[in-house]
Specification:
The complex is a heterodimer of chains A (92) and B (597). Chain A has 92 residues and is of the alpha+beta class. In chain A, 17% of the residues lie in helices and 32% in strands. Chain A has a five-stranded mixed β-sheet with strand order 2-1-5-3-4, with helices on one face. The mean pLDDT of chain A is 97. By secondary structure, chain B is an alpha/beta fold. In chain B, helix 1 packs parallel to helix 4 and helix 15 packs antiparallel against helix 16. In chain B, a hairpin with a 2-residue loop joins strand 7 and strand 8. Chain B starts with a strand and ends in a 13-residue tail after the last strand. Chain B contains 17 helices and 20 strands. The chains are: A alpha+beta (92), B alpha/beta (597). Chains A and B meet through helix 1 of A and helix 11 of B.
Chain lengths: 92, 597
């Protein structure tokens, strides 16, 4: 099925202010949100940068705000949040 | 370009790096450079425990631990180094405890220990309780404890700096070059001593327990400076990774009484390791799972088997085995006890599989886990230049990126945490001692030139190839042909495929042209490391015409001590020419014997 990722982007070298960018890609419901971010980065937009390391909920690198809640992208599955996914930085 | 100067720089902030930095900082100005934030290092995912013959619950001795490790290594481990590690183990655990590590306790208040694969009572041959643990988060606790100790000791941290080159002047270490991820700027760390503690390279394989960060940066950087890598053909596949995802399910599950079942519901390890069954060494269990799947004994005809830790199953098989508690009463567990002892495992299964291990068996398959090979060192962590064990002044390595070799052809569970604590400490001590008596080498004229040229090449490529595709294909061919079972034909196929991918890799260019957090550029550079190590791993493996530990060949199924009781050392020249040499295994007390469990 197709998932939609709406990502809050900011490039300090180019952008005056942050804005949302939307990506569409094929996914399955057991995909981690991190898997989707990796695919977007690999095939659609290499400028997408985010932290990640262990990919199974231990190291905490990929903490982000997903559909309005602070979560780990590697511990959040599509089936947990649905096919329309908004990704933003965690609130300070 | 910025330049910094320290007596000692440590690359990597996992267990080995933090331990090295902590000890070095007591006698020398020290910096730890990490491409991650330190507590995100992969040591944090180590689950089951750290091995030490404390004998807190039953009889145990460092000599038994030594023998088990030698046997586990399939006799390729250097016995002087193994003896040293196992003797130091007891001290190391008490030291961690004194630093504040919250080990689990027995009701009497002693450090609790659990059985683990390949660790035995040398008289009875039965599993022994040797793994000291903090639930199933032992590595996490080690990492947090050591990081706090380093902060207390005012170690200088450079977080999110990625080291991309080693500086060598007059045959001695002179520092490293790193990219500051937040700015893209090159930094030169000018130092008297350099300690690599960068971890493994398990991202070469498709199904892996390893973090994204495990791209072999240390070995790749050292190798590009003309230094050898040791025993690369030995890579461990852990028997129990979550099906398809590869996420690790600790051997501690089997230590607590969990058993492996095939699609027919048979406890198949009885066939392969009659004495210790599910607690055989990892290479043995991974091969058994592979053979069960190959013989159509997977679950539902799929490529997985079950790991069952449901209390009723544990209690049934514990009774059949006659397993006893230390006080002599029959061993039993409840669902609550499983949850208390293995909370993270239960959580992983619920999140990723929708399976509750208290009431359902877990689908598992072997997963790429640990590099036994790496940067050659002696037992003091000093890096070695050749097969004659010539020490490179000022250069050290510790932890998974190093090859001492204490793990030989197959590492025992709990010995990696032990390795990084013991050898991290000694590398740190040695480096500080060296720095106190050494002059700093002058920096080369343009110290960042070699590293900068690598990145310029990547940025100038034509962009006709995709890095994600190349990585996916490398992982697949390496898992299929350079996995648990290998053959000459399969490995030649892997070599050809990897060389073709290396060609294609020269066309990869990042679409991101920026400097700030250009992770696309850094990830491409990392892929280059993985491809280089995949090639050298395959070449080392093709040359070794025997089966030993993690290197198991269908065309050479037997261990060949006559010809192959030796370590491999591989060099790659800048023009791509590869040289393989060998050096003898250090033997002290233990003659090679047939290895059965």
């Amino acid at each position: 099925m197709q998932a939609t990722l709406k990502i809050f982007r900011y490039n300090p070298e180019k952008d005056r202010k942050p804005s949302y960018k939307t990506y569409k890609l094929e996914a399955i419901e057991t995909d981690r949100v991190l898997d989707l971010l990796e695919k977007v980065k690999g095939y659609q937009d290499g400028t997408l940068s985010f932290r990640r390391s262990c990919a199974h909920g231990i190291c905490g690198s990929d903490a982000m705000r997903i559909n309005g809640m602070n979560r780990l992208a590697c511990k959040t599955l599509v089936r947990d949040v649905g096919w329309k996914i908004t990704v933003e930085p965690i609130l300070g | 370009m910025k330049t910094h100067q320290f007596d000692v720089v440590v690359i990597g902030a996992g267990g080995a790096g933090l331990m090295a930095g902590l000890y070095a900082s007591r006698g020398a100005s020290t910096a730890i450079i990490s491409k991650l934030y330190p507590t995100r290092s992969h040591t944090g995912t180590a689950q089951g425990g750290i091995g030490a013959a404390l004998g807190s619950q039953e009889e145990d001795h460092p000599e038994w631990h030594t023998y088990d490790t030698v046997k586990g290594s399939d006799y390729l481990g250097d016995q002087d180094a193994i003896e040293f590690m196992c003797e130091e183990a007891v001290k190391a655990v008490y030291e961690l405890e004194h630093m504040g590590l919250p080990f689990d306790r027995t009701p009497e208040g002693r450090i609790s220990q659990r059985p683990f694969g390949g660790h035995t009572n040398n008289v009875t041959g039965k599993p022994v309780r040797r793994a000291c643990h903090a639930a199933d988060r032992t590595g996490h606790m080690i990492l947090q404890t050591l990081y706090q100790q380093c902060l207390k000791n005012k170690v200088n941290f450079f977080d999110e700096f990625q080291v991309v080159d080693l500086l060598m002047v007059n045959g001695k270490a002179a520092g490293v070059v790193a990219v500051e991820l937040a700015t893209g700027e090159m930094h030169v760390f000018h130092s008297k001593a350099v300690i690599f503690a960068t971890g493994g390279h398990g991202r070469i394989w498709e199904i892996t327990s390893n973090a994204y960060a495990f791209t072999g940066d240390g070995p790749a950087v050292v190798m590009r400076r003309g230094l050898p890598l040791e025993d690369l053909e030995f890579f461990q596949f852990h028997p129990t990774g979550i099906y398809k995802l590869g996420i690790l399910i600790t051997e501690g599950v089997r230590g607590e009484g969990g058993i492996l079942l095939n699609g027919k519901g048979e406890r198949f390890m009885e066939k392969y390791a009659p004495k210790v069954k599910d607690l055989a060494s990892r290479d043995v269990v991974s091969r058994a799972i592979y053979m069960e799947i190959r013989d159509d004994n997977g679950v539902n005809g799929q490529n997985y088997v079950y790991l069952d830790v449901r209390p009723e199953s544990v209690n049934k098989y514990a009774a059949l085995d006659g397993r006893k508690n230390p006080d002599g009463t029959p061993y039993t567990v409840s669902g609550e006890e499983i949850l208390a002892k293995l909370p993270d495992i239960v959580d992983f299964c619920r999140v990723y599989l929708g399976v509750d291990p208290i009431t359902q068996p877990m689908p598992i398959q072997p997963t790429a886990h640990y590099a036994m090979g790496g940067i050659p060192t002696n037992k003091y962590g000093e890096a070695l230049a050749d097969e004659k064990n010539t020490v490179i002044p000022g250069l050290y390595a510790a932890g998974e990126c190093a090859c001492v070799s204490v793990h030989g052809a197959n590492r025992l569970g709990t010995n990696s945490l032990l390795d990084l604590v013991v050898f991290g400490k000694h590398a740190g001590l040695r480096a500080a001692e060296f720095a106190r008596g050494a002059e700093i080498q002058p920096l080369p004229e343009d110290p960042a030139a070699f590293a900068a040229a690598q990145f310029e090449r990547i940025r100038a490529a034509d962009g006709s190839e995709n890095a994600f595709d190349i990585a996916t294909q490398m992982k697949k061919v390496m898992f299929d042909d350079m996995g648990i079972f290998r053959s000459g034909k399969g490995m030649e196929n892997a070599l050809e495929a990897v060389r073709l991918l290396k060609q294609r890799f020269t066309h990869v260019r990042p679409t991101d042209s920026g400097a700030v957090f250009n992770m696309e550029l850094m990830n491409i550079w990392e892929l280059g490391n993985l491809l280089d190590l995949a090639e050298l791993t395959t070449l080392s493996a093709i040359a070794r015409t025997e089966s030993r530990g993690g290197h198991s060949r269908e065309d050479y199924p037997d261990r060949d001590d006559q010809n192959w009781l030796k370590h491999s050392m591989i060099w790659r020249e800048p023009d791509g020419k590869v040289t393989l040499k060998y050096k003898p295994v250090v033997m002290t007390k233990f003659e090679p014997k047939v290895r059965t469990y």
